[in-house]
Amino acid sequence: MLRIAIQAKGRLNEESVELLAEAGVSIEESKRKLLTRCDDFPLEVLYLRDDDIPQAVSMGVADVGIVGLNEVEEKGFDVKIAHKLGFGKCRISLAIPKADAYDGIGYFNGKRVATSYPVILSRFFKGNGINAEIHEIAGSVEIAPSVGMADAIFDIVSSGGTLVTNGLKEVEKVLFSEAVMISNQSLSEEKRQILSQLLFRIESVERSRGMKYVLLNLPHEKIDEAIRILPGMKSPTILPLAQEGWSSIHVVINERELWSKIEQLKTIGAEDILVLSLEKMIL
Ligand SMILES: Nc1ncnc2c1ncn2[C@@H]1O[C@H](COP(=O)(O)OP(=O)(O)OP(=O)(O)O)[C@@H](O)[C@H]1O
Ligand SMILES: O=P(O)(O)OC[C@H]1O[C@H](OP(=O)(O)OP(=O)(O)O)[C@H](O)[C@@H]1O
Ligand SMILES: [Mg+2]
């Protein structure tokens, strides 16, 4: 049995639960306690505050965890980053009052900077030879300059909307973060195997993201041209249709290229085109 810690509530909770469900590991909402066993996979789910996940994993209270890279860096516990998960993307940035002129990082010398990430910030300042005063606050960091609590801030930015609302501008992007799967450094062989099974499932889900399954009908003599339009992809499946002289082609296409490929296929005579979502790609 592997024990995974995920955020109890907040920004990463929903997507963590969803990812596990897509990997065939379902947690019944009705059964939800702080520690829940999954029915269909040897996994126990422990719900924690995100701040506590790195320590729980490093101590072995949980074997693995889903948490923002920012928390892993800030807390500094010895854990392994087993997989980047691609959601909860944000950055931690330095921001200053909009009206201030910014002429480089020397701006911060002698300034008071409010943040919930003092470790990452002091490492950054140290690395850049900046001597600033760091004020640790737990939340509502963006309000600090306008109430005179600080001259600048160091906090999470995603759309940048919160900064604009508070009359601030982003001047240095210090850390790019996303949700990551962390693991304890010394998992037993059995737990390591469950984790690699879980990661295999997660990778199959990730691979299918943005991919579409396309079916279309085409005259036999156009098949070579169709294959040329679809280079770089695994060879398409070609099945004869009951109608003489026609085939059905099945192919997986990246959503980004979908319309341009379909337009090209139509010009060579493709008909009856069906585009389906792909749930999983297991290689
Ligand atoms: N605006 C955002 N856009 C994208 N990701 C974000 C954003 N804000 C935070 N995150 C990511 O989501 C994580 C959790 O954010 P959340 O605001 O839920 O944390 P919290 O308030 O500290 O929660 P908790 O109650 O668990 O301590 C952050 O550590 C960060 O990795
Ligand atoms: O650049 P933006 O898209 O505006 O996002 C950034 C904001 O998002 C987070 O706060 P959240 O909304 O989670 O509220 P919180 O202060 O309760 O954490 C973070 O602390 C920033 O304040
Ligand atoms: Mg927190």
TrEMBL record:
Residues 49-203 form the ATP phosphoribosyltransferase catalytic domain. Its cofactor is Mg(2+). One of its GO terms (molecular function) is ATP phosphoribosyltransferase activity. It catalyses: 1-(5-phospho-beta-D-ribosyl)-ATP + diphosphate = 5-phospho-alpha-D-ribose 1-diphosphate + ATP. Pfam families: HisG, HisG_C. Keywords: Amino-acid biosynthesis, ATP-binding, Cytoplasm, Glycosyltransferase, Histidine biosynthesis, Magnesium, Metal-binding, Nucleotide-binding, Transferase. It is an enzyme of class 2 (transferase). Feedback inhibited by histidine. Residues 209-280 form the Histidine biosynthesis HisG C-terminal domain. Pathway: Amino-acid biosynthesis; L-histidine biosynthesis; L-histidine from 5-phospho-alpha-D-ribose 1-diphosphate: step 1/9. InterPro entries: ATP-PRT_HisG_long, ATP_PRibTrfase_cat, ATP_PRibTrfase_CS, ATP_PRibTrfase_HisG, HisG_C, N-reg_PII-like_a/b, N-reg_PII/ATP_PRibTrfase_C. It is found in: Cytoplasm. Its EC number is 2.4.2.17. Belongs to the ATP phosphoribosyltransferase family. Long subfamily. Catalyzes the condensation of ATP and 5-phosphoribose 1-diphosphate to form N'-(5'-phosphoribosyl)-ATP (PR-ATP). Has a crucial role in the pathway because the rate of histidine biosynthesis seems to be controlled primarily by regulation of HisG enzymatic activity. This is ATP phosphoribosyltransferase. The lineage of its organism: Bacteria, Pseudomonadati, Bacteroidota, Bacteroidia, Bacteroidales. The gene is hisG.
